[in-house]
């Protein structure tokens, strides 16, 4: 018996010295999909930052949002139940666990269309959502005792209940205010509606200069005849801006002065005519910029090294990039110079973008022919990472160029691909897009020169027209084959308060190439790109 106890003690002592040093495997856990009642559009799942965001329709109670389905990686354990009702005014945090823990954050946004406008209004309505306050300016000579409210909306009926506009007329009190009780989803809010008298009938609140264009925004008298005059500084003659350049809504006037000379100082004045009397704004002075060209826009500069075509003569002059460094492994070039298929009247070379399936040792991946501002970053396994963008601070109006496109039928479609992407046998499509933005490489994973990193392993990095860094954007989609034709893609500016820091231009023979989906029969040719700095 004593010998048995000694053996057991020895074994116990030995076991206390054994360390469990076998490492657990690293398994990245992800939210794969989410279904939300009343959501608009598709959710955005950011696998790098581990966030999920979605947009709610305006008739949904954001304090009582029903998440119907919350799908995660296999074998995931959640720190809390994520199916049910949630107050989405606040971010919802959940930890996904298997061998390691990963915290994800789920957020919702909601835009509710609200309206408050009055007859004789000057400029836009100013909304203070936190304080439940809306303010409008009105001609001071109109008085405040009988104000006609021309529009009033706090949300969709019947979910939202609020007074009729006709019930709000007298703003002739110390605060120039009426209150409106708004009831929604069983909750009651009090809104303060303020009408302030204003002497000025037109004034500029935005003056942004381009090379041949100045973008203007002014507040003016709703219903008045408004206009803008301009001249070179020192000139005696005022020129009248054409009415076709204007867009007006509720007393807000926007226009782009066109056909201006570069690097020239101009004087601009606005006017409003009401009841036969003309009132003018102060004169503003602005100087136009120069125009920056696109490097190697004619696609004439190429180099060839170690079996790879590069769209530049040397690395110091590199401005455009392609996926060729990745397809080099398979001994093919997706993008190459072409001297045979030239646009009418053109000479030299154009760029040929040929979508192909690159196979190495029996392992094949589809790759779209592409051409972009930026650089090829690196290869990770069988995936290529590219960095989009080049430094650029100008404000062009459009991208012009020549394109030819042979559209093929999709013959490459990996298993597990998003079902919303066209499948085998369906037509491919090509695309060209241009974007100006102020992307921070610390946020988008790239580098100071090319800030937006596209990682084909992570769909959340794929570039799209809703990217938050975009200041101006334009695109053209080719849903059919076209012979050589000239195109012009106008840039639509979304924000004039921000200044561009970079430009992204991307052309692809297969728009779903990020997903390794497309046709090996799709070929695009490009020639003579040009940035425009004026409108017609």
Spell out the blueprint of helices and strands.
Elements: H1 2-17, E1 31-36, E2 39-46, E3 51-56, E4 65-72, E5 77-78, E6 84-86, E7 92-97, E8 101-110, E9 115-118, E10 121-128, E11 133-139, E12 149-153, E13 160-161, E14 177-184, E15 187-198, E16 202-209, E17 214-220, E18 225-232, E19 239-240, E20 246-249, E21 252-257, E22 265-274, E23 277-280, E24 284-287, E25 303-305, E26 308-310, E27 320-321, H2 324-327, E28 335-338, E29 350-354, E30 356-360, E31 363-367, E32 370-380, E33 383-388, E34 390-391, E35 398-406, E36 430-437, H3 441-444, E37 452-455, E38 470-478, E39 482-490, E40 492-493, E41 502-508, E42 523-532
Parallel strand pairs: 3-8, 11-15
Antiparallel strand pairs: 1-4, 2-3, 4-6, 5-7, 7-8, 9-12, 10-11, 13-14, 14-15, 16-17, 17-21, 18-19, 18-22, 20-21, 22-23, 22-24, 25-26, 27-32, 28-29, 29-42, 30-31, 32-33, 32-41, 33-37, 34-41, 35-39, 35-42, 36-38, 36-41, 38-40
Query: How large, in whole angstroms, is the Cα Rg?
Result: 30 Å
Tally the beta strands.
Answer: 42
Q: Mean pLDDT, rounded to whole units?
A: 88
Main beta sheet, described? 9 strands, antiparallel
What is the total domain count?
Answer: 4
Protein traits:
single chain, 536 residues, mainly beta, Immunoglobulin-like, 4 domains, nine-stranded antiparallel beta sheet, flat
Structure commentary:
With about 525 residues, the chain is mainly beta. The chain has four domains: about 80 residues, Immunoglobulin-like (Sandwich), CATH 2.60.40.2340; about 80 residues, Immunoglobulin-like (Sandwich), CATH 2.60.40.2340; about 90 residues, Immunoglobulins (Immunoglobulin-like, Sandwich), CATH 2.60.40; about 230 residues, BT2081, beta-jelly-roll domain (Jelly Rolls). About 5% of the residues lie in helices and about 45% in strands. It has three helices and 42 strands. The strands form ten sheets. Strands 27, 32, 33, 34, 36, 37, 38, 40 and 41 form a nine-stranded antiparallel β-sheet that branches. A five-stranded mixed β-sheet has the order 2-3-8-7-5, with no helix packed on it. A five-stranded mixed β-sheet has the order 10-11-15-14-13, with no helix packed on it.
């Amino acid at each position: 018996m004593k010998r048995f106890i000694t053996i057991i003690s020895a074994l116990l002592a030995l076991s206390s010295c054994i360390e469990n040093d076998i490492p657990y495997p690293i398994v990245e856990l992800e939210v794969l999909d989410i279904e939300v009642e009343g959501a608009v559009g598709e959710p955005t799942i950011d696998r790098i930052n581990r966030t999920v965001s979605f947009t709610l329709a305006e008739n949904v109670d954001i304090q009582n949002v029903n998440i119907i389905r919350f799908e995660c990686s296999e074998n995931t354990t959640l720190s809390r139940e994520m199916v049910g009702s949630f107050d989405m005014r606040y971010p919802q945090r959940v930890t996904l666990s298997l061998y390691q823990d990963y915290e994800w954050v789920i957020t919702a946004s909601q835009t509710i269309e609200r309206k408050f406008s009055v007859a004789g209004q000057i400029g836009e309505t100013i909304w203070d959502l936190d304080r439940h306050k809306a303010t409008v300016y009105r001609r001071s000579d109109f008085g405040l005792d009988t104000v006609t409210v021309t529009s009033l909306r706090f949300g969709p009926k019947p979910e939202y209940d609020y007074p009729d506009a006709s019930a709000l007329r007298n703003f002739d009190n110390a605060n120039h205010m009426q209150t409106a009780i708004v009831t929604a989803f069983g909750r009651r809010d009090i809104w303060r509606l303020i009408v302030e008298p204003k002497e000025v009938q037109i004034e500029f609140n935005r003056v942004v200069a381009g090379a041949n264009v100045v973008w203007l925004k002014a507040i003016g008298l709703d219903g008045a005849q408004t206009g803008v005059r301009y001249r070179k500084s020192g000139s005696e003659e005022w020129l009248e801006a054409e009415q076709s350049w204007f867009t007006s809504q509720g007393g807000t006037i926007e226009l782009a002065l066109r056909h201006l000379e570069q690097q020239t100082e101009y004087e601009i004045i606005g006017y409003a005519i009401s009841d036969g009397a003309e009132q003018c704004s102060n004169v503003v002075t602005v100087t136009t910029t120069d125009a920056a060209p696109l490097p190697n826009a004619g696609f004439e500069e190429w180099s060839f090294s170690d079996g790879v075509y590069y769209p530049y003569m040397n690395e110091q002059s590199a401005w455009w990039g392609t996926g060729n460094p990745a397809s080099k492994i398979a001994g093919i070039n997706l993008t190459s110079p072409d001297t045979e298929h030239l646009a009418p009247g053109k000479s030299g070379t154009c760029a040929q973008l040929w979508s192909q399936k690159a196979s190495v040792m029996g392992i094949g991946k589809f790759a779209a022919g592409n051409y972009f501002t930026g650089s090829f970053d690196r290869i990770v396994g069988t995936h290529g990472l590219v960095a989009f963008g080049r430094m650029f601070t100008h404000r062009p109006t459009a991208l012009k160029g020549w394109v030819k496109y042979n559209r093929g039928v999709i013959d490459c479609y990996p298993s597990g691909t998003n079902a919303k992407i066209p499948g085998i046998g369906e037509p491919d499509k090509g695309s060209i897009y241009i974007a100006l933005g102020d992307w921070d490489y610390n946020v988008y994973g790239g580098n100071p020169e090319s800030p937006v990193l596209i990682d084909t392993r992570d769909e959340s990095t794929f570039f799209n027209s809703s990217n938050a860094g975009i200041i101006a954007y334009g695109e053209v989609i080719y849903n059919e084959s076209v012979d050589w034709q000239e195109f012009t893609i106008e840039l639509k500016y979304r924000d004039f308060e921000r200044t561009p820091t970079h430009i992204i231009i991307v052309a692809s023979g297969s728009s779903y190439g990020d997903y390794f989906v497309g046709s090996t029969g799709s070929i695009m040719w490009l020639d003579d790109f040009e940035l425009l700095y004026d409108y017609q």
